[in-house]
Write a structure and sequence with these properties.
Elements: H1 3-17, H2 39-50, E1 53-63, E2 67-77
Antiparallel strand pairs: 1-2
Length: 81
């Protein structure tokens, strides 16, 4: 699958899941002691310990030009952001 085709598939999947929304790249900043593959409890702990808020959305997974999937995901928004 060409890069342009892959990007088109990602955009199509995102717009069919959340109409009118565009994907945004969020850089990963490891928090240190989170549970592997457990974003929701990890973010809840960060909010409890440091303030800020949980932001829910979707993680885009692209695998070897074979498949594109979305997974429910949460990130922590720092009170300083």
């Amino acid at each position: 699958m060409k890069r342009e085709t892959t990007l088109a598939k990602i955009m199509e999947l995102c717009s069919s899941t959340v109409p009118g929304a565009a994907p945004v790249y969020i850089p990963v900043k490891a928090a240190g002691r989170g549970l592997l593959n457990e974003c929701f409890p990890n973010v809840q702990r960060m909010v409890r310990e440091h303030g800020g808020q949980q932001v829910n959305g979707w993680a885009v997974w692209h695998w070897a030009n074979i498949s594109v999937t979305l997974e429910a995901h949460a990130i922590w928004e720092s009170p300083e952001d």
